[in-house]
Specification:
Number of domains: 1
Strand content: 25-35%
Mean pLDDT: 84
Low-confidence stretches: none
Order of helices and strands: HEEEEEEEHHEE
Helix content: 40-55%
Keywords: Membrane, Signal, Transmembrane, Transmembrane helix
Radius of gyration: 23 Å
Number of strands: 9
Structural class: alpha+beta
Distance between the termini: 34 Å
Number of helices: 3
Largest sheet: 6 strands, antiparallel
Shape: elongated
Strand order of the largest sheet: 6-5-4-3-7-8
């Protein structure tokens, strides 16, 4: 039993100590960095006008593979990290925010209390539409992309 435990511990330690590849995004005007682990969902726009979306793997220190195509880091003009939750929830927030703006606009003209309630619907709806649309963008002019192998 003791030898079986040692064998299990040895095999587990080999798995834990394997190399970890990370895509590092560093903001140019500060020292803020984000690390995106391999096999996470990202959306990438290239200089050629192509758009790739999906899980990525790191090929070498200068390129990644996404949708079975090699993309050089120097060819990327914008990158957006896309989680599964964000992919599902963002359209829902945009739709509910749009309905809140429409309902607020419809009730603003109904009177004093209608203006107050309608205005609050509009104020609540605007961030629900704007934040999912503009969040998590990392354009090339503001961010530097690199790969770190641990």
């Amino acid at each position: 039993m003791k030898y079986l435990f040692l064998l299990f511990f040895f095999l587990f330690s080999i798995c834990v100590s394997s190399q970890n590849k990370v895509l590092v995004i560093q903001q140019l005007n500060s020292k803020f960095t984000k690390e995106i682990n391999e096999n996470k969902r990202i959306k990438v726009w290239t200089k050629d006008g192509e758009k790739f979306y999906g899980r990525f793997t790191i090929k070498d220190s200068t390129s990644i593979i996404i949708e079975e195509k090699v993309v050089l880091l120097e060819d990327i003009i914008k990158m957006k990290k896309k989680s599964l939750f964000g992919t599902i929830a963002n359209p829902i927030f945009i739709v509910y925010g749009s309905f809140a703006i429409i309902a607020g606009a419809a009730t603003v003209g109904t009177g004093a209390w209608g203006a107050l309630i309608g205005g609050s619907f509009i104020v609540a709806g605007i961030p629900m539409v704007l934040i999912p649309s503009i969040s998590n963008n990392h354009p090339m002019q503001d961010w530097k992309y690199s790969i770190k192998i641990e």
